[in-house]
Write a structure and sequence with these properties.
Blueprint: E1 9-11, H1 15-24, E2 31-33, H2 36-41, E3 47-50, H3 57-66, E4 70-74, H4 81-94, E5 97-101, H5 108-117, E6 125-133, H6 135-139, H7 154-176, H8 182-206, E7 211-216, E8 225-231, E9 236-244, E10 249-256, E11 260-266, E12 277-283, E13 289-294, H9 301-315, H10 323-347
Parallel strand pairs: 1-2, 3-4, 4-5, 6-9
Antiparallel strand pairs: 6-10, 7-8, 8-9, 10-11, 11-12, 12-13
Helix pairs in contact: 3-4, 4-10, 5-8, 8-10
Length: about 350
């Protein structure tokens, strides 16, 4: 998207990764640094894009906000409510702005789904599903020729582990009074990764649920699968997700009303040009069943998201996937974990 953006600065703990990425960037060579503060404070930077490890998202986004920048941060924005609140406060105090990378929420099909149903008041039931293979399967076939690098200093790896442990302790132990174990830690990470796509889309289409009626965490020594049932004022939403070894991408949001079912179907974002589609099944006036597939665009959701970012930076457009919005995902994760732990305790 060189017509929209020019990469002026790169930051990473791997010098080899930075050099590799710099060679692929068109135009003037970007500056390089292993210190995120250098990038965030640079007058050559308008937008700070945070795509580091989850445990560093809050710190890197905070540095961008304190420099008065627009910050695009990949989900999860933060790993705890405390960190989310710190970002929201910094945004108010320093004049920067946060956009969170929920790219599925910029799919036109999702935006059209509730309108097609006729409003959330017509919803009887909904289902959110996301079952897929490891993303490396898709990335390896994407045509981008990804590479990995191993020149990360041992102290950087130690810092990453320590920071991650501290964030998990804050989120689980301090904020939810849930014991930090390998399983609860893994589940929290899964919710912040794959789960945030699904639950954020659920919020976009239907709003926040009132409670989690029940949930099941992933289990030890098995491919991770988890599920939940969320309560809304007049309907429930089932949520199921998992990662296995079957090479497929099965992600959707399905909404049921009296005379119509609307299903938003996502394909892998790692292969460009695979569209998100809206599948409509309805009863005709003569009692017949009608199936329609609406493909509004072939532009992938990453491209649509970046176009939205451009409008935010250049034209001051209001941010939909804001820091305040993203905090609601952490609240949903908390609902899930409390229900899952309660279920587990009841069966022991």
């Amino acid at each position: 998207m060189s017509d929209y953006f020019q990469v002026t600065y790169l930051c990473d703990v791997s010098e080899d990764a930075m050099a590799h990425c710099a060679r692929k960037i068109p135009g003037p060579s970007p500056r390089l640094s292993s210190k995120h503060e250098d990038l965030c404070s640079s007058p050559e930077v308008d937008v700070v894009l945070v795509a580091s490890s989850d445990a560093f998202h809050q710190a890197h986004a905070l540095a961008g906000l304190e420099a008065g920048k627009v910050v695009f941060v990949e989900k999860p924005m933060a790993m705890s409510l405390k960190d989310a609140d710190a970002l929201i406060a910094s945004e108010k105090n320093h004049g920067g702005r946060i956009m969170v990378g929920y790219m599925r929420r910029y799919a036109p099909a999702l935006l059209d789904a509730i309108e097609e149903i006729g409003g959330v008041e017509n919803v009887l039931y909904a289902r959110v599903r996301d079952i897929l293979n490891e993303k490396s399967v898709f990335v390896g076939q994407s045509g981008t020729f990804p590479k990995t690098f191993s020149d990360i200093k041992p102290e950087s790896l130690v810092e990453s582990r320590q920071r991650s442990d501290a964030k998990l302790n804050q989120a689980l132990d301090t904020e939810l009074s849930i014991l930090v174990t390998p399983i609860t830690s893994l589940q929290w990470r899964l919710l912040g990764g794959l789960g945030s796509h699904d639950l954020s889309c659920m919020r976009e289409a239907l709003g926040m649920p009132t409670k989690c009626l029940g949930a099941a965490m992933c289990v030890a020594d098995s491919p991770p699968f988890w599920s939940a049932l969320f309560q809304y004022p007049k309907f429930t939403v089932s949520y199921e997700s998992g990662i296995d070894s079957v090479p497929r991408f099965d992600a959707s949001v399905e909404i049921f009303s009296k005379n119509k079912t609307v299903k938003v179907v996502y394909d892998t974002p790692y292969v460009k040009g695979l569209p998100t589609t809206m599948h409509v099944r309805e009863s005709g006036p003569d009692g017949s069943a009608r199936d329609t597939i609406v493909r509004k665009t072939y532009e992938d959701n990453y491209t649509l998201e970046m176009k939205e970012l451009y409008e935010i930076v250049v034209n001051g457009k209001k941010i939909k996937t804001s820091a305040t919005d993203a905090k609601q995902d952490l609240e949903l994760f908390g609902m899930f974990m409390k229900a899952a732990v309660a279920r587990q305790a009841a069966t022991e």
